[in-house]
């Protein structure tokens, strides 16, 4: 079974918040192990916005990383899914934040 995590549920689960019960956490761990946890792009954006306002500590994207909100969201999505990114964006490539897909290299 696949489930979509709301932003707060995803953040609480990742950060080990006690706002999720132990049975909820174990259940999410099982669903994730079966590749059944999904996220909306909006959750990635929302987490980044909380981070930029100082309301959420993330080690995902540094403050100095790429000022384009779309670029930030695309990179955050690739990071969340553990995927290399196919891009010609020089700022993203130079950041070292995300593995860059090398294509036919």
Fold and architecture overview:
With 105 residues, the protein is mainly alpha-helical. The protein has five helices and two strands; from the N terminus they run E-H-H-E-H-H-H. The protein has helices at residues 7-15, 22-33, 41-52, 69-80, 90-95, and strands at 3-5, 37-39. It has a two-stranded parallel ribbon. The chain is globular. The relative contact order is 0.12. The model has no long low-confidence stretch (mean pLDDT 85).
- The chain-level structural class is mainly alpha
Order of helices and strands: EHHEHHH
Task: Kindly report the average pLDDT value.
Answer: 85
- Give the low-confidence spans: none
Strand content: 5-15%
CA-atom Rg in angstroms: 15 Å
Number of helical stretches of at least 4 residues: 5
Give me the secondary-structure topology.
Layout: E1 3-5, H1 7-15, H2 22-33, E2 37-39, H3 41-52, H4 69-80, H5 90-95
Parallel strand pairs: 1-2
Helix pairs in contact: 1-3, 3-4
Keywords:
5 helices; globular; two-stranded parallel ribbon; 2 strands; about 100 residues; mainly alpha
Brief sketch in words of this structure:
This protein has 105 residues and is mostly helical.
